[in-house]
UniProtKB/TrEMBL annotation:
<dbReference type="InterPro" id="IPR025499">
    <property type="entry name" value="KdgF"/>
</dbReference>
<dbReference type="InterPro" id="IPR011051">
    <property type="entry name" value="RmlC_Cupin_sf"/>
</dbReference>
<protein>
    <submittedName>
        <fullName>Cupin</fullName>
    </submittedName>
</protein>
<dbReference type="InterPro" id="IPR052535">
    <property type="entry name" value="Bacilysin_H2HPP_isomerase"/>
</dbReference>
<feature type="domain" description="Cupin type-2">
    <location>
        <begin position="19"/>
        <end position="83"/>
    </location>
</feature>
<dbReference type="InterPro" id="IPR013096">
    <property type="entry name" value="Cupin_2"/>
</dbReference>
<dbReference type="Pfam" id="PF07883">
    <property type="entry name" value="Cupin_2"/>
</dbReference>
<dbReference type="InterPro" id="IPR014710">
    <property type="entry name" value="RmlC-like_jellyroll"/>
</dbReference>
Length: 92
């Protein structure tokens, strides 16, 4: 249900394409990395620091460092994520 493709990671930035299927519910996540998520296709519900927002194509979600967050996929979607610093756990 989750397909990730690291598009680039240089300097302190990482750019990742994530494909998610409708109905996917992510576990609560929390990491030191700042994250910006751009909804390229579809729609999702993001919960960030206890605040829930529905995002659709063209919307952007900022996730600060060390803030709990999770995603619920409302329609098949593609999200473009930017992380800083680089998430070493996603580098092959």
């Amino acid at each position: 249900m989750v397909e990730r493709e690291v598009l680039t990671h240089e300097g302190s930035l990482m750019f990742v394409k994530v494909a998610l299927k409708k109905g996917f519910h992510g576990d609560v996540d929390q990491h030191i990395h700042e994250q910006v998520s751009y909804i390229n296709k579809g729609s999702v519900e993001f919960e960030v620091g206890g605040v829930t927002s529905v995002l659709k194509e063209g919307d952007v979600q900022y996730i600060p460092s060390n803030v709990e967050h999770r995603v619920k996929v409302l329609e098949d979607c593609i999200i473009l994520d930017v992380f800083t610093p680089i998430r070493e756990d996603l580098v092959e």
